[in-house]
Structures are given as structure tokens and as C-alpha cells.
Amino acid sequence: MVIRFLMVSLAAFLVSFLVAPWGHWYLHWIAYLPMFWALREETPRANRWLVFWYGTLAEAFIFSWIADTITLFSNLPMPVAWIILLLFSVVFGLPYFFAFAWVHQMRRRFGDWWMIVLPSWLVVVEWIGSWIILFPYNQGVSQFQFLPVWQLTSITGVWGLSWLVLFFNTTLAEAMYRRREGRPFPVPWFSAAVAVVSLIVIWGNGRIQRIEKELQQVEPTRVAQIQDDVTMVERRGKSREAFEFWMESTKAFPRGSVDLVVWPEGASPYSLNGSTAAVLLWELVERGDFDLVVGGGTRERSSDPEMGETGRVLSFNSVYYFGREQLAGVPGASLEADVQAWIDDGCPAGAFAEDAEVVRVAVHQLASQWALAGTCVDNLPVLREEVHAARDTLARALVADDALYGRYLTARRQVGPMVEGRLKMDRRRGPYLIAIAEGCDSGDCPGFYFTCDLDQECELFPAPPHYDKMVPLPFGEYLPGAQTFPWIADLIEGPGNFRAGTEAVVFESNGGRLATPICYEAILGYVCDEYEAPDLFVNVTNDAWFGDTAASALHGMLVAIRAVELGTPVFRSAYSGLSFVVEPHGRIHAQTELFEEAHRMVPVRVKTFDTLFAKWGSWWVWVSALVCALAWWRTRQRAADSASAAG
After folding, report:
1. Is the pLDDT of residue 539 over 80?
2. Which of 182, 345, 509, 621 has the lowest CB atom count within 10 Å?
3. Crossing angle of helices 114-132 and 619-646, rounded to 10°
4. C-beta separation of 246 from 263 below 8 A
5. Closest among 273, 265, 266 to 314, alpha carbons compared
């Protein structure tokens, strides 16, 4: 029993070497043999315990970085972190238990067909686990470096590769069991396994060549790859320095040298739906003539009368899109002459009556001008009090430009009735105004930024569209149960309090439609399926929280699935690594090292390809479930026939 225990432990250790960053994918075709060897037909109870230990130990090896992360970014000590890792490994190791614990019972019940049924059952177990396990992990993902076989995911998804790898292992296991039993080698089954793998390799090579030929005809999109070299321990508490790093790195690209700039998750420490940070980013876009994707935050106020809460602030982990095409539609000073003529005529009452609410909001901006134009104040008496109040506070700092009102009025007509204007001061920039649409109090309100610097230069910028992360990370971005039991948050420090977004937003850019799954959303196939016809997945993430561990490589490996499954290229931007590009045939290039500062232009060949998986989804799971159901029904039918014959 001791030797069997050691063999199972060796097998579990072997599994950890299949995945990134080690990536010994070739071992996976024989990786389960030590475990199969340890299982004996005469000891079913011991088999179950051995497989339970196998799954727990394998997960502990693969996810050992969890303990380090807990101790770094929470108030929990290392012994508690190891206990949490153990509990995590027990739960996440259960798919191994449910898949392998009854191998010999399957052999007795299904005969040689167990070599088909067991891989099919594994696929069903993995699919169920993908909906309930925090970090879903498919066995077939280890083959992401074996590109000819990796092409199978375009047909079956990664489920088909999990099935194929285990099928190859079961044929070898059957040979081992037959040798133990004194029976001949299963030549037909092993030959079938070799033939299937060989045919897939031949077909996969052909698919790679076809896709590469088409990609060579594509004019690449020039994407700026920027990456920092700091850990989150070094970066914490230095929000301003972090923001300036991304700003200066972006400014270093000459105008027109890139088409798209991507900042990773958390690059902006500021909420971008109501701060001058958004104005600074718009100015970057104007200056560099590119589109900009930024990982930042969204804060919005909400009220819950039932809970007795007013002015509650909700936080979201978001991606903002600053597109050149949006700036092209920003209104200019087309009403400038009309407004000047109105002032010259003594501001006749009623000329802009329909814009009374805008005038009320804009009066602070025009305080100096209006205070001198007494007739205008007389004709709009409702504004008199605000004019005089503004004159005493902000009038000297605010601009008194005749063109200002015309530009503001034009913007108002484009975005709809503005009923809220929040006037703020930035010591470096001067005054700016954020105006939002009628009846809207959330971070999704249409609106614009109206900003003037201290040199009396004024500009209009639209409110950038954004995507809110739909699946916040449990225990990282929110603490499960903390809404119901607030005392949990007091007990465990570290996790955030982010809410879930509700819409899979796709941004219309100059280079195509951009879907921006945030962090580990990109490893969740059901999330990526919600984006409507993207041309490019831009996965922004911040794996710097996990330090110099295997977490970043493991996370990146799981993201690579999406490119071939959906026939859509992936640009992954990580705060401090690993960043890379995955093409629709699975080739990875422009990969950075962990904690390596990067600043370069990366060509991305943006072209999508139709795949059977994108069209039919997880159909291989249903085929596998059908195989299991038919096998079970067939054996039940045989048992019933035998009982009837005996009777």
C-alpha cells in the first residue's frame, strides 16, 4: 500500500509539470499511468482514498501560489493560508475523484468500452465543474503548445482535447491491466488511439497552414504593449506614481506610430466616470492619434429606499474605451456667432428659453462675462443669485470667453437635456464641468466633459463608454456573504467590494470590434460567448498580485484557449506580465517575461475565422453525456435480459 501511495503522489506531482510555466505537455499522454497502476480491482475502498489524495495533492501543487497571495494581501497568517489552500485543493480535486475512483467498476460493467466511457465521463465532470469551480481547469489545456493537436479545440472546444488525452491514457492502462491479468495486448484499441491522434495532427497542420496563409494578407494593427516591472507590494499606496508611469510610457510613442494603446487592469487608480483623469486620457488620444483601452474603476451613486440607504456608492472594475472616432463627433463652436450676436443685442429674453437648464448649469463657467453684462442678468432673473455667488468664488479663475457658451450649448444639443452639472476645480488644470443626462444618476450616463485650463483654453470631450466586469473574483474583488453578514468583512481584510456588471459591451474601434474580458473572465468560456461578434479580444489583467509564482503563467495558458475555440485573436495586457498575443491558430508571440518592463509596438493580425465550436458551442459535452447514458442503459438492459433468462 505504501508503494501505491507513493506512485499516486508521483502521478499528482507529474500533473503539475504539465501546465505552465513548466509546460511539459508531452508527459500528459502517459501522465495517468502511475495512478492507474496503483488502482487494484480487489481494493475498491482503497482506490477511492488514493484517487482523493491524488486530486487533492495535484491541486495543491498547481495552486500553491494561493497561500503566498493570501499572506501578502490579507491579515491572515501563513498557517491559516495553508489551511485555506488545503481546503481549496480538497474541493477543486473532486473532479479527479469523480472521474477516476471507479475505474475497475467501469471495466467490469462496460468491458473494453470503458476506454471510451471514462474519457466521456471526465468531459461531463469538467463541464459541470466549469460552472461551480472558481478556477475551472480542463485537462486538455496542457496541449496549447502542441499546435497541430490544439486545432481540435476549434471543433470540440477544449473538451475534445481532454477526451483525447485521457483516451490515449486509458488504452495504455488497459494494456497494463491485461498484462497483470495475463491477457494479450489490446492492439485494436491502441492502434485506434494512435490513428486518431495521427489524423488530428495531419488535419491540424493543414489548418495552421491555411490560417497562416490568410493572416499573411492582413495588414496588422499596431498595438502598444506596455508593462510595468513592479510588484503590487511596491506599488501599493503609490497611485499617482502608477498613473504617471502609464501616462509617460504612452506619451513616448510618436504620433501616428500605433493604432491602439492598451493599459492593463487597474492601470488607472481613479474612477474614470467623473474625474479629470478622463480628460487627461482624451488629451493622450488627441496627441497620439490612437485608440486607448484603459483598465480603471467606475463609481456611481445609488439609493435603496428599502434598505434605508441614500447616496450609496457602488464600485465596479471596468474597462474604458477612448476612441478617435468619438472625438471626431465632438461639437465645436458652431453657435459662436449666434451667441455673440445675442450678447451684442442686449441678450433679448427668450432667445434660448428652451436651454434654460443648460444656462443654469453653465453660468458658473460664464460668471465673469455675465456679471459684466447686466442686461443679460436682468432678462434671466432666476440666474441672478447664482451669478453673484459665482462671481465671488470662482469668477476670477474661470474663463470669460464669448465662444464658451456657444460650444457648451452645441454639446448640450448633441447629448440631450443636461440637468446635472458638477463643477470642480483641479489646481493644475483649472475648472471643469461634468454634465450628465436627465434622470440619470449612474456611471453609465451619457454626457461630456467641459474643461478649461488656467490659460483660458477650453475643450469638450465625450464621456468614454465602458464595460463593467460581469464576474468579479470571489475573495479578491468581493467577499462572498459580506453583504448579508457585514462582520465577515471586518474579520477578513483585503478583499474589495466590487459589484457585477450586467452587459457584455463590445467597443467599436477603428480597427474592429473590441471585447475586453477583465482578468480571469477570459478563462470562462460562458463569459466570452456573451460578446457579440468581436474582432479582437483584449484581455486586461493584473497578475502582479500573485508575485513571482506560477499563477501568471497558468492564467495565461487558460486564456489561450479562447483564440482557437472562437477563431478570434487575443491581445493580453498584464500589469507586470505575462503579456502576449494569441492568433486564431494558437500561435503565441510578443510574450513578455514576468516583472519585465515593456514598451514596444506589437503587430496584431486582426482577422476572425469561423469555427464549429463558436457555432455549436459545447456540443462535445452533450455527445459525451450521451455516450455515458447509452453505456449505462446498455448495461442495465443486459442485466435485465440476464435476469429474465435466468428466471
Report:
1. yes
2. 182
3. 130
4. yes
5. 273
Q: What angle, 0 to 180 degrees and rounded to 10, lies between the N-to-C axes of helices 103-110 and 114-132? A: 130
Q: Extract the C-alpha cell encoding 616.
A: 455549436
d(CA 291, CA 83): 46
* DSSP assignments along 222-270, one per residue: EEEEEE----HHHHTT-HHHHHHHHHHHHHTSPTTS-SEEEE-TT---S
Rounded distance between C-alpha atoms, residue 115 and residue 173, angstroms: 9
Q: Is the peptide bond before 578 cis (omega within 30 degrees of 0)?
A: yes
CB 253 within 8 A of CB 224: yes
> For the chain, what's the residue count?
647
User: What average pLDDT does this structure show over 442-452?
Assistant: 53
Cα–Cα distance measured from residue 261 to residue 320, given in angstroms and rounded to the nearest whole number: 12
In the DSSP assignment, the letter for residue 202 is H
For the chain, the farthest-separated pair of C-alpha atoms sits apart, in whole angstroms, at 111
Cell numbers for 508, please give them: 467599436
Query: E strands of 52-174, at which residues?
Result: none
287-323: per-residue pLDDT in tens? Answer: 999 999 999 988 876 655 554 555 567 889 999 999 9
Strands 309-322 and 291-304: antiparallel
Q: Where are the domains of the chain?
A: 2-214+617-646, 221-323+467-615, 336-444
**Does the domain made of 221-323+467-615 have the CATH classification 3.40.190.10?**
no
Nearest of 491, 162, 461, 493 to residue 331 by alpha carbon:
461
